[in-house]
Amino acid sequence: MMGTPMVMAIPFARKEVRDTFKKLIAAGEAMEQWQKELAVVSTEALEAGFPAGRGGMGIAPFDVIGDFLRGTQGIAIDMFRQPEKLLQCIDMIYEQIVPRMINQINSSGGFSVMFPLHRGDDTFMSRKQFEKFYWPTLKKYIDALIEEGIQVGLFAEGKYNERLEYIGDFPKGWVSWSFDQTDMAKAKKMVGNKCGISGNVPASLMVAGTPKEVKAYCRKLIETCAPGGGYTLAGGCTADETKNPENFRVFMQAAKEYGTY
Q: What is the spatial distance between Cα 202 and Cα 235, in angstroms, rounded to a whole number?
């Protein structure tokens, strides 16, 4: 055992490992500088009277456990083997994080919070599991924020086709949903009357598709979701614009051509 630390240190003598650490250090320094400059610009904007916008990043109580405590496999098993303990833990986390988030947003001067939803989609859990484990505390969380005058945006990672009947039950104008792989026609019909919706141009299409395919996809989305307002043309998830910049130009052109009222 005494020799283990010595053996573990050997890879750090390799050039490729040292080069990797140098790149990570450079990336960290660049990020730190970016944050400093962003803080200056943000302060100037606030002093000039611009609203703060997003005041925080939220997380569903179920996802807190899945992301930081039990892992994907662990929490999937917990839903079957110890559901009551899991529910108790979800409720406990809810009670802790909601007041903290409200205080954070109020102190920042922001008026909205964004939630990336990691494990609520159709493929990770059944409808009954969503009703039991995921949605109740997330719904309460969103309602609590709305009561404080805080707008809520949520990114529905994966497919939410089986969740649409639940996620639109909010006061009009307070909640917006960004969809990844959800049927946008259904989303418009079932959610778009009360909530803003955006999405879901696939990253794969933006990177590997042709400009013609991108334009056609964007046009269909706009024609399906834009009538009546409340829709923002957007990607389903983040795509690297450096891989196919022409497609991103076509994306913007399609928004201007077909999205003009």
A: 6
Enumerate the domain spans of the chain: 52-157
Q: How far apart are CA 250 and CA 109, in angstroms?
A: 36
State the DSSP string of 123-161. Answer: TTS-HHHIIIIIHHHHHHHHHHHHHTT-EEEEEE-S--T
DSSP-assigned beta bridge partners for residue 199? 233
In 3D space, the residue among 217, 237, 251 whose CA is nearest the CA of residue 155 turns out to be 237
The model's pLDDT over 40-92, given as tens digits with 9 standing for 90+, comes to 888 888 788 776 667 789 999 999 999 999 999 999 999 999 999 999 999 99
pLDDT for position 1: 47
Rounded CA gap, 226 and 254, in Å? 13
CA 68 centroid distance within chain: 17
In angstroms, the CA 146 to CA 194 distance is 14
Q: Are 175 and 152 in contact (CB under 8 A)?
A: yes
Q: How far apart are CA 241 and CA 244, in angstroms?
A: 6
Virtual torsion, Cα 195, 111, 157, 131, nearest 10 deg: -70
Instruction: Tell me the mean pLDDT in the region 205-214.
Output: 95
List, in order, residues 6 or more apart from 238 with CB less than 8 Å away: 203
**What residues contact 226, with CB distance under 8 A and at least 6 apart?**
258, 259
